[in-house]
């Protein structure tokens, strides 16, 4: 094994130390949220909690199952967010895959013009009020409207189109010689060879749906609000000094508990998707 000289050794020590410190720092918000959620009311409101919990209790989490003030609207919003994320991601991926596949074809009629109009939406926006009025006129005022109205993002179409352009044309020509249709070519050639890109775009759409806030808050009724809107309401209640509730825990603890509960699906799903992305990179990384 080749021995490292002094300068390389110092560089590696510094680099690994900085990366380790950065990794630890990214965990601090999660650790603090859990600690603040389960700490006593006095400890949280006096600012004593910095890392580990003080006089821990799980009463705040029980409130999300037993307290009528927050439990019902929290879990309704949770269900709404799962609905938006699951069906919205499926719908968005379907549109994006077909659009990217069509735009990757050199013989597509008016290909340059279509590409220009798609990219143009990334450069220019009509503004909030015209966009809001347009959404209302289109009837985007319910859960299905949110899914259809925010179906695709131009960046994701361009990203997937560029990856489809890198797929070996020889493999596609061989499939055509074998009598494969366009749908069969997409299903059997392009999609299997683009797993990493598909996983990445799926992650982008899923996170966008999961974090949906502004337009969901403005366009749909309170019973169809996603989790992020309710989280904002809980955080606002925690900072409202005029609001007096007879709880054994702080409202700040309630807001942190809501945050912890809201990220559980992401913590569960992301490692699985990350593994899938790694497999996709290995599968699509070598092309003829």
From TrEMBL:
Keyword presence, Metal-binding: no
Subcellular location: Cell membrane
CDD domains linked: TM_PBP2
Protein's membrane topology: Multi-pass membrane protein
Gene3D superfamilies recorded: MetI-like
InterPro entries: MetI-like, MetI-like_sf
Keyword hit for Transport: yes
Family the UniProt entry places it in: Belongs to the binding-protein-dependent transport system permease family.
The protein's name: ABC transporter, permease protein
Upper taxonomic lineage: Bacteria, Bacillati, Mycoplasmatota, Mollicutes, Acholeplasmatales
